Amino acid sequence: MAARDKQLAPPAKKQQVHRPNKIDRPEVDYVNRAAEGFLQIYYECMDGPQRDANIAELYRDTSVLIWNGETVNGAQQIKEFYAKMPQSKHEIQSWDCHPVPGTNPTAILVTVSGIVLHGEMPPKMPQTKKHGVLHRIFSQSFVLTPEPKPMIQPGAEAGQEADRYFIRADTMRFVG
């Protein structure tokens, strides 16, 4: 038994596990407010009568949309893609957001789940697929990136305006 014990390797030292940096509460609150405001604007644009014109303002030439597996690149192509879609009505069931670690200024990851209707809209959200409306459960994720701020001229006073975000990446999938 003693010979066997000598052949065993010594026990490995425990390695210190590095925990992620704690995110300051003010940053979490800021990201939460920014995401909530974005979602209100986004879904109002998506469900509005001028969807293709309004929604394009939230994307840039570098933006990517993946809609149920179909990839669309750039604001103009995204605008054209949405122009072909029937009228919609989104009902958000839940959403969450997080600052993206390592980004400065802070990018935001937003996840959404809810119900969407496509087609001629009834007065209220129906419980069945009547009225020629397609009732679907969706999951959508966004990466929001702050717009680059203009350079401040030397001697000019910096303003206190909030960051303006655009959609860097948008993935939407029907899940039910």
Automatic annotation (TrEMBL):
PROSITE patterns tied to this protein: NTF2_DOMAIN
A GO biological-process term: nucleocytoplasmic transport
Gene3D superfamilies associated with the record: 3.10.450.50
Disordered: region residues: 1-25
UniProt domain NTF2: residue ranges: 34-174
Signal peptide positions (record): none
Domain of life assignment: Eukaryota
PANTHER family cross-referenced by the UniProt entry: NUCLEAR TRANSPORT FACTOR 2
Protein name per Swiss-Prot or TrEMBL: NTF2 domain-containing protein
Organism: Serendipita indica (strain DSM 11827) (Root endophyte fungus)
